[in-house]
Design goal:
heterodimer; A: six-stranded mixed beta sheet; 9 strands; B: mainly alpha; 79% helix; binds adenosine-5'-triphosphate; binds magnesium ion
Chain lengths: 258, 219
Amino acid sequence: MPDPAPRGNILPLDTAPGHNRRRAETAAWLLMAEELRYERGGRCLLDGISFALSPSGITALLGPNGAGKSLLLRLLGGLIRPDSGRIRFDPAFDGSTGMVFQKPVLLRRSVRANLDHALRIARIPRRQRTGRIAELLVMADLTHCAESPARALSGGEQQRLTMARALVNKPRLLLLDEPTASLDPAATAGFEALTREIARMGTKIMLVTHDLHQARRIADDVIFIHKGRIHEQGPTTAFFAAPRSPEARAYCAGTLIT
Amino acid sequence: MLDGQIIEIVALSLRVSVFAVILAALIGVPLGALLAVGRFPGRNLATMTINALMGLPPVVVGLGLYLLLSRSGPLGILQLLYTPTAMIIAQMILVTPIIASFSQQVLSDLHAEYDEMLRAMKATRLQVMGTLIRDARHALVTAFLAGLGRALSEIGAVMIVGGNINHATRVMTTAIALETSKGNLRLAVSLGLILLGLAFVINIALVVLRTRLERQAHA
Ligand SMILES: Nc1ncnc2c1ncn2[C@@H]1O[C@H](COP(=O)(O)OP(=O)(O)OP(=O)(O)O)[C@@H](O)[C@H]1O
Ligand SMILES: [Mg+2]
């Protein structure tokens, strides 16, 4: 079945994120989590989390509600610290990370001003900002509402704006927390095409999603977590062909009771 | 009714109070932002101090400033006593804690919402403060208006350090007190009505701003 026409344009090659960082990849991983543990209020929310994140491609992070996916993304993005364990990064990684949160947080300003603000914080000179904003608006298909207050946008439009904002610094690592949860099918297809293109340009993407078809379509490999623990990690095809852990099997079948 | 004398008094009142509020905002907003965003020792103490200073009795501020500025005081050499400058300083001292405390509250709330997003962007502390102040600007204006209302209707401090000198430091509140005690009720009532009107206008502006803010919050 052919893909539906993606919405918005794909980033032109020379402006795609990460392209200027493409280099011979030496390390076999971009980051390595070692025995991460995170507790809050006497509850162990993440425990014994160890995995290596491959330096390229798209990794889907799957698991039921409350499994700890958003927490893990925050740990990887450096927004919270593990109570024990550590995260090692490829020495060649410049630390540039883009993040899309599950709940869009937008400034009380126009769509354009939101992007301009992010570009300013990324220290992009004023002369380049206007052009870059125009590109990002086209990419996120938000040109028609560039001057609207960002918080008045529809849920899907807000999500597309936070995605565009996460790309302003052309990050090497992109952490996406259910970025298509409120997108319509065409916007979702556009998003998937864009993500694939960004990954092809050398940005590593970690994607939290509950859309198993989406994971199957775009992820290269899968990490499955349940109750704060990793139950399974492996290539997408192998994972969906035959999940090894009973929890993953039940989750994919839609019968996992948490 | 609006004779030259009244215009002069009202104009001085506005000049002194507006100036005082501008200075108080220039100090109070960054201070509030620092307390909302910063993590440093003494932060809680500073917050408590500012909240305590909100309740400063104006007469005591006036007295303290009088002691500083009087001829034999440590700052007597500046010869500021009984000048509009002294009145501006007194009102600024009274309004700054109000603006700082309100700013801290508003900016803390906004910070709780923006914190992770801004940290994910690797914004510097200064950029965080700038972002918060900008996005809270309408709420901050309500604090400025509240401060202006307080400054305009304040009498104790400006009486002591201004001295209610005709054509020099006579403002609405001090003039009303004086004219009433002299039995010149016509002037006192005129000034009283003008002060009332100003307070009314400021409060209308406050209400309008608040409703607009609420609408924004729901957007
Ligand atoms: N700051 C916190 N304090 C206490 N508990 C927390 C905190 N943050 C998260 N949790 C708990 O940790 C668990 C995992 O939360 P997390 O947001 O990572 O789930 P998730 O896998 O992203 O779920 P969903 O699919 O619903 O988004 C939840 O049970 C949540 O209640
Ligand atoms: Mg989540």
